[in-house]
Design goal:
Elements (H helix, E strand, L loop, with lengths): L2 E6 L7 E10 L2 E12 L13 H21 L2
Antiparallel strand pairs: 1-2, 2-3
């Protein structure tokens, strides 16, 4: 079964980071862009989670949709 985790991209010149969903299955790895950008102040330094509730909810919804698609396609 594949695992889906949240990952942050490189810091842009505007002080923002793009949010990606990282899908791993055995040795294969793929990053999927979510279209969500977060400021450095919106990322918890210790836990590396998104503090902004709306953005965190959007990313979690995308993650759950992807998980649902992956489990419904699998034989």
């Amino acid at each position: 079964m594949a695992t889906i985790t949240t990952e942050f991209g490189k810091l842009s010149s505007k002080g923002q980071r793009a949010v990606y969903l990282r899908v791993r299955d055995k040795k294969t790895e793929k990053r999927i862009a979510t279209g969500v950008k977060v400021d450095e102040s919106e990322i918890s330094p210790r836990t590396k989670k998104i503090k902004n509730f709306e953005k965190a909810q959007t990313v979690e919804k995308l993650r759950m949709e992807l998980m649902y698609k992956m489990t419904s396609i699998a034989p």
